[in-house]
Specification:
347 residues, 17 helices, Rossmann fold, Zinc Finger, Delta Prime, domain 3, alpha/beta
């Protein structure tokens, strides 16, 4: 049995396999194909969106023996060894544990030597914002006048902590959060490959919870698979979410002005062990989805991260609400979410 987690088993080995970073992929493939390589690259963006993976793919491309159109072949010795993390000329450094001036001085000394096995020596420094001020200063001269055989790739989740003098000496690439639909499609491919039956609604719940991070989504997927069947109910139980059906029922009772029924539903939610603030946030999100579905029409499918059945159920539940009523209810729920934190009687 393969004990590797999904994020590692399905880590992209080609640029074309990267999810959600089309602009970055096109630019880097073009640079490799045309031989227009910068001495330094800075990859910034949220966690789990492909920064380190892209750095390894770029390192592959810089040393690939059969590069085609900027895409590494994946089969030559350098490509295979980079993928396995054992290529001697690709040095990965954790910025969080190598923060000092001495670490950078050692790096500068090593960078002066020619590559041992490939064409280019590549230094990948992850979480580069963790370097000390002195370490950044020690790195400046090397970035300004780098050896011709060396390329630096920096990755960070906190760009604002990287000195402007470093940023200005690199080509900067901003990695965006990955759309829920793209995450759902990738998880569906994983499930099909592994022969796992899944509900579409379950994948949407995971995608929303991941907040744009594919790595987080794949970790959540592994967790749900370990728990049991991959259904929306299972995901909600594992993540402690309020059932979408319950939220749609709350919308239905709001539309029917059924105050007693809504209070009874809230009591059921609390009795099930859910925190009231999560219920209020979930209901506010559901009303926002309803408003977008009403306003966006045919384009709503791309804007509302719900499965088709969930969208239809929500539209039916909120049929009795006018758009201005939805807006007022949404505003009130947002205010209530803030008041709950300070209230001694949240119920």
């Amino acid at each position: 049995m393969d004990r590797q987690v999904t994020a590692l088993r399905f880590r992209p080995q080609r640029f074309d396999e990267l999810v959600g970073q089309e602009t970055v992929v096109r630019t880097l493939k073009g640079a490799l194909a045309r031989g227009r390589i910068a001495p330094g690259y800075l990859f910034s963006g949220p966690r789990g969106v492909g920064k380190t993976t892209t750095a390894r793919l770029l390192a592959k491309g810089l040393n690939c023996e059969r590069l085609e159109g900027g895409e590494p072949c994946g089969t030559c010795t350098p490509c295979r060894e980079v993928a396995e993390g054992r290529f001697v000329d690709v040095i990965e450094i954790d910025g969080a544990s190598n923060t000092g001036v001495d670490n950078i001085r050692d790096l500068r000394e090593q960078a002066a030597y020619l590559p041992a096995a490939g064409r280019t020596k590549v230094y990948v420094i992850d979480e580069v914002h963790m370097l000390s001020k002195g370490a950044f200063n020690a790195l400046l001269k090397t970035l300004e006048e780098p050896p011709p055989h060396v390329v630096f790739i920096f990755a960070t989740t906190e760009l604002h902590k990287v000195p402007a003098t470093i940023v200005s000496r690199c080509q900067r690439f901003e990695f965006r959060r990955i759309r829920e639909a793209e995450i759902v499609a990738q998880l569906a491919r994983v499930a099909e490959h592994d022969g796992i039956a899944v509900e579409e609604a379950a994948l949407w719940e995971i995608a929303v919870a991941a907040e744009g991070s594919l790595r987080d989504a794949e970790s959540l997927f592994d967790q749900v698979v370990a728990f049991g069947e991959v259904t929306a109910a299972t995901v909600q139980e594992v993540l402690g979410l309020v059932d979408r059906g319950v939220l749609s029922e709350a919308v239905r009772r709001i539309a029917a002005r059924d105050r007693a029924g809504l209070l009874a539903l809230v009591d059921e939610v609390v009795a099930a062990g859910h925190a009231l603030d999560l219920f209020v946030r979930g209901l506010a999100e559901q009303l926002r989805h309803l408003l977008v579905l009403r306003l966006a029409g045919a384009a709503a499918a791309e804007l509302v991260p719900l499965a088709e059945g969930q969208r239809q159920a929500l539209l039916e539940a909120g049929a009795g609400l006018a758009e201005d009523q939805i807006e007022r209810a949404l505003g009130r729920l947002v205010a209530t979410a803030g008041e709950l934190r300070a209230s001694p009687f949240p119920r």
